[in-house]
Design a protein that fits this description.
The complex is a heterotrimer of chains A (about 325), B (about 450) and C (about 280). Chain A is built from 16 helices and 3 strands. Chain A has a two-stranded antiparallel sheet. Chain B has 2 domains: about 270 residues, Rossmann fold; about 70 residues, no CATH class. In chain B, helix 5 links the parallel strand 10 and strand 11. In chain B, helix 4 crosses helix 7. Chain B starts with about 25 loop residues before the first strand and ends with a helix. The mean pLDDT of chain B is about 90. In chain C, strand 3 and strand 4 form a beta hairpin. Chain C has 2 domains: about 55 residues, 3-methyladenine DNA Glycosylase II, Chain A, domain 3; about 170 residues, 2-Layer Sandwich (Alpha-Beta Plaits). Chain C is built from 10 helices and 9 strands. In chain C, helix 2 packs across helix 3 and helix 2 runs antiparallel to helix 4. The radius of gyration of chain C is 27 Å and the shape is elongated. The chains are: A mainly alpha (about 325), B alpha/beta (about 450), C alpha+beta (about 280). Strand 1 of chain A pairs parallel with strand 2 of chain C, so a sheet runs across the interface.
């Protein structure tokens, strides 16, 4: 009946191709190279963990929307998939499945749905899940399988610490950095991804490829990642120049750990990052400073997750302070 | 390649879809019946001068101005006034209009109907303004602001630069593009007339880079007219907005909260208006017809037509091959800022730049989602407001805060809603906010 | 070990006592003297903070009452006579009789009476639709049915009936706060007395167009035919701008059935009136 009638609506009458779904699936697509690299180095473990995380996240979101909140189910918008992938990418491939399920529950139920679902959460859900797991199960969360090229056997892998972990431990024991660097994978390995680490964070190359895709699709802008990485580079660079026996060089810092994953994919999460250009830059700089502080002076070897979560808390304030300049303002 | 000039903040680039760009302007047949609304311009509605049974010719005044910001209205046909009735117009509401039954096509004798170019301008400044006022010329870009008001420079201000708006940034529309190509000579004379009226010695025609033929043609013509030049602009919506165009060409920002282009030494006129001024001043011809683009992806014969004011949209649609099957929406104007029509009897008015027919599958909005705080609306807003915030405030009814957040800055260009990935009706609520806040500001003003 | 416990208990208690005393001093020092009657009046108010009295909230109303010292023009429609009697008792003034009122929708342009001619596809907000066009039925004064009134109502008294497309007021829940009157962009709502035995008669139309165009869009539109004026010859029935209006002082007993029967378009509706065509 209504189909035959002329439609009357306020302008605009056209819409761009942008949609929440497109953004979410673009992020998922952009994470595929990193996923492939992790399969190459961690084998079946990587596939298992990623799939379980995605399925759990979708399932929890569906159940909560259908039976607890009793709102229309929107699992198809892809945000649960992205949360699942990011959660999986932030844990070692050897993590037990049940632990991961708990992490997925915290990610979806606590960090996302309890605030009202997509768009309402103040903190990055995947990072909340990850940090929860890190605090509850520190042993499992910090024993990383050693990468084994093209090994798809189901045997448990040998585990070891990450490059940053080794460095931190060494420095705590009083060793000099140049000496420690001998035992740590070289820059090329860090770049390609042949290192111990979480599933998604190992390969800088794959992550940058994915990020380039997001940039081309205009899903993210350069402001946050660039200011983040640049700050880490400058800050660690200064410390390195001051004392190269105590601090590692800046190149090592930007290639190792979860910085690339964090800067390109987690800090840029639209929901939990500022909206204006200057706000984004401040946010990135804050993340960078906090990351370096935690890495070099904190108890944990890696600080990306904590840094981003802390900066997430400041986003409302940043949004309030950094307003776009009004046209013709006076 | 050097980057082209454009405005600095925000903007979007919707698909251009200029289907009718190559179609010559054709003259549409005189309709059987016209309804000429008495409120076709911004400002006070005009006062009707005719009554039922009166005989009128083309160019006979049917309504006169009722204030400073108002305009004369002339009959666009010859025949008998059938009625002064309420007719649904582009506003979506029934409004008073003069309905005329057409009989023949007789013009007032004072009108020069020849097509020869009259270059010499004999009138003085005040005479030009008077002529424009008499002829009922209004801004033909869409805002329909009475033109004579814009030709009078207020005391103490100077119109350094006259900007001619040939941008036509709305997708689909091509009426201004065709005018520039086919009536270039007259345009140049028209520009000269306005320069005399404004006492300005510099005029810049702003044209977007997607109309290279018009840029080339007008640049060639401009050589013979001192002070006139053409500026190529990057294709970006809403560059045809007055404030954006001034920013793009001169780099100056019109102050917000009631600032006018003249405050930064500029005056902007649309190319259609320039032509109307030429005809009013040189040919003594009131504004009785205008170029209308009829277009749409499924329209059989899209084109540009010279249409008498008051012609029902139906006649225009028939000339373009009728309403295609599965049409969902008929829009007066472009897809970004146009108004949807409720039926086909709506008359073409002075502000109708195009009729756009949208197929059914493109006419429905998508389901709204949650705001994901992506900030895209903020980054595309040409006026630097935060649509997502104003949307929330307006929904909540927090008018005080909405005013503080400069809701009145919004020019309703629709860039925010166009971009919003969650398909939120941002502009709908911004309009609500603007209306409410505007009401409160006026109430405060009246109290004082 | 004991020492540690003791010292922590002592120091924490100390901090507690210190903070408490600061709070105590501050509350004494910065105490604002307030008329105790404000609190008393506020206590008997319904605390709905609906704004029906014309003030921002119940507290503001209580302040206004105490400040004025009398009840002229001050009324809480939500609490009704009972509540105002209590307020009057606190203030020590006479109770002023107020008639109970109810919100009435003066439009009967349901989907059946005023068929849809276009399909609206925009924000579900009457204000936005009102700014855009005359409405799906084409009537420029009729109800848009998008429920701004239902959103504005804090008492859950208004629901939009999906079948008719019109909002319905629940007389029992309606407290006549007037929120719907302000919310409606077309001023369709009117607060009318509930009437003796809830008998009411009113014109359910706001259309000011002439007969023919009004009738084109809606079969129950008032066409301004004057029949109601002639039938009753009552001062409370009048026609202006082709629209009849029945004043709130109409005699429902004698004129009610007459008014309803005389209307050729059934634009006049009655509630609890015998012989009425529409309930």
């Amino acid at each position: 009946m209504t189909d035959k009638l002329l439609t009357v609506s306020p302008s605009p009458h056209v819409h761009s191709e942008f949609s929440t779904e497109r953004i979410m699936y673009d992020v998922a697509i952009a994470l595929i190279p990193a996923f492939l690299v992790s399969i190459v180095f961690f084998g079946v473990g990587a596939i298992k963990v990623t799939l379980v995380a995605i399925v759990c996240c979708i399932l929890f979101e569906y159940l909560i929307q259908k039976f607890v909140l009793k709102v229309p189910v929107t699992v198809c918008d892809g945000s649960a998939i992205v949360s699942g992938i990011l959660l999986a990418f932030n844990v070692p491939s050897s993590i037990p499945v049940w632990m991961l399920a708990i992490g997925a529950f915290v990610t979806i139920a606590v960090a996302k749905m309890s605030f009202g679902g997509l768009g309402k959460n103040p903190f990055n859900p995947a990072l909340v899940g990850r940090v929860f797991l890190l605090i509850c199960f520190p042993v499992h969360m910090t024993s990383w399988p050693v990468p084994r090229l093209w090994d798809f056997s189901f045997t448990d892998a040998v585990t070891g610490a990450t490059a940053l972990g080794k460095l931190k431990e060494g420095v705590m024991m009083g060793h000099a950095v140049p000496e420690l660097m001998q035992k740590i994978p070289g820059y090329m390995d860090l770049f390609i991804g042949q290192i111990n680490g979480c599933i998604g964070e190992i390969s800088v190359l794959a992550l940058v490829l994915g990020a380039a895709y997001l940039l081309i699709r205009k899903v993210i802008t350069l402001y946050i990642p660039m200011s983040y990485i640049f700050t880490v580079f400058i800050f660690t660079g200064i410390l390195w120049l001051v004392n190269d026996q105590r601090f590692a060089d800046p190149l090592f810092h930007i290639l190792s750990g979860g910085l690339m994953l964090g800067a390109w994919f987690m800090a840029t999460d639209m929901v939990t990052s500022p909206m204006s250009k200057y706000g984004m830059i401040i946010f990135g700089v804050g993340c960078g400073v906090l990351t370096v502080f935690i890495r070099l002076f904190g108890a944990y070897p890696e600080g990306v997750s904590f840094a981003i979560l802390i900066m997430n808390a400041t986003v409302p304030l940043i949004n309030k302070m950094f307003r776009p300049k009004r046209f013709g303002g006076r | 390649m050097p980057s082209l000039k454009t405005f600095s903040r925000g903007g979007v680039h919707p698909p251009e879809c200029k289907i009718s760009a190559k179609m010559n302007i054709e003259v549409l047949h005189v309709p059987q019946k016209v309804s000429i609304p008495i409120s076709q311009h911004l400002g006070a509605p005009s006062t009707p001068l005719v009554k039922r049974g009166d005989m009128v010719k083309v160019g006979t005044p049917v309504a006169k101005t009722s204030g400073f910001i108002s305009a004369n209205i002339h009959s666009s046909v010859s025949g008998k006034v059938a009625n002064i009735a309420e007719v649904v117009d582009t506003s979506g509401y029934p409004r008073k209009a003069v309905v005329i039954d057409v009989d023949g096509d007789e013009w007032e004798e004072s009108i020069d109907r020849g097509s020869d170019l009259k270059k010499d301008i004999s009138l003085s400044r005040d005479e030009i303004v008077q002529k424009v006022l008499e002829s009922g010329v209004v801004g033909l870009g869409g805002a329909t602001f009475p033109t004579h008001v814009k030709l009078m420079v207020p005391q103490g201000k100077k119109a350094e630069i006259l900007i001619i708006n040939g941008v036509e940034c709305e997708p689909y529309l091509t009426s201004d593009h065709r005018l520039m190509l086919e009536r270039g000579e007259e345009l140049m004379v028209g520009i000269h007339i306005i320069m005399i009226a404004l006492e300005s010695d510099k005029a810049i025609i702003g044209i977007e880079a997607n109309k290279p033929d018009a840029i080339k043609y007008l640049t060639g013509l401009a050589k013979d007219y001192p002070g006139v030049s053409v500026q190529t602009l990057k294709v970006k919506y809403p560059q045809g907005g007055e404030k954006q165009l001034i920013k793009a060409i001169t780099g100056r920002e019109v102050p917000n909260k009631g600032g006018l282009p003249i405050d930064v030494g500029t005056v902007v006129h649309n190319v259609g208006t320039v032509l109307a001024i030429y005809e009013a001043v040189q040919k003594n011809r009131p504004l009785v017809e205008r170029v209308v683009t009829i277009t749409g992806k499924s329209v059989k014969k899209p084109g540009n037509y010279m249409v008498r004011i008051g012609t029902p949209v139906q006649d225009l649609v028939e000339a373009a091959g009728g309403i295609p099957e599965n049409s969902g929406k008929i829009i007066s104007g472009g897809p970004m800022m146009g108004k949807t029509l409720t039926n086909l009897d709506v008359p073409v008015v002075k502000g109708t730049s195009g009729i756009l027919i949208i197929p059914l599958d493109e006419s429905k909005r998508k389901v709204e989602g949650n705001c994901i705080r992506c900030g895209k609306c903020v980054s595309v807003c040409p006026l630097g407001v935060e649509p997502h915030l104003l949307y929330a405030l307006s929904k909540r009814g927090d008018w005080e805060r909405a005013e503080k957040e400069d809701v009145m800055n919004c020019c309703e260009c629709g860039s925010c809603q166009y971009t919003c990935p969650a398909h939120l009706p941002l502009l709908d609520y911004l309009r609500v906010g603007k209306a409410e806040v505007g009401k409160q500001i006026r109430a405060r003003h009246n109290k004082k | 070990m004991n020492n540690l416990m003791l010292s922590s208990i002592l120091s924490l208690s100390g901090v507690g006592v210190l903070a408490a005393s600061i709070l105590y001093i501050a509350s004494k020092k910065f105490h604002v003297e307030e008329d105790p009657r404000i609190d008393q009046v506020e206590g008997v108010l319904p605390m709905a903070n609906c704004g029906g009295c014309g003030f921002a909230g119940c507290r503001n109303f209580a302040e206004a009452v105490v400040k004025a010292g009398k009840l002229d023009g001050l009324n809480c429609p939500v609490g009704g006579a009972e509540c105002m009697a209590q307020v009057a008792h606190i203030m020590g003034v006479d109770v002023q009789e107020t008639e109970p009122m109810v919100a009435v929708l003066r439009c009967n342009g349901s989907r059946k009476n005023a068929p849809q001619k276009t399909h609206y596809d925009g924000a579900l907000n009457c204000f936005a639709a009102h700014a855009l066009f005359a409405g799906e039925s084409g009537c420029p004064n009729g109800c848009l049915g998008l429920g701004d009134c239902a959103v504005a109502c804090s008492f859950d008294a208004i629901t939009v009936n999906p079948e008719t497309g019109l909002p319905e007021v629940d007389d029992d829940k309606c407290v006549a706060c007037g929120a719907c009157v302000t919310a409606c962009p077309r001023d369709i709502y009117e607060l009318r007395p509930k009437g003796i035995n809830s008998k009411r008669v009113y014109v359910a139309c706001m259309n000011t167009q002439k007969g023919a165009p009004a009738k084109k869009n809606c079969s129950v539109a008032c066409i301004g035919c004057m029949k109601c004026v002639k039938a009753t010859e009552s001062k409370s029935v009048s026609v202006k701008n082709f629209l009849s209006y029945i004043g709130t002082d109409v005699d429902t007993e004698s004129h009610g059935p007459q008014l309803i029967d005389c209307c050729p378009t059934s634009a006049i509706l009655g509630v609890n009136i015998e012989g009425s065509k529409n309930a």
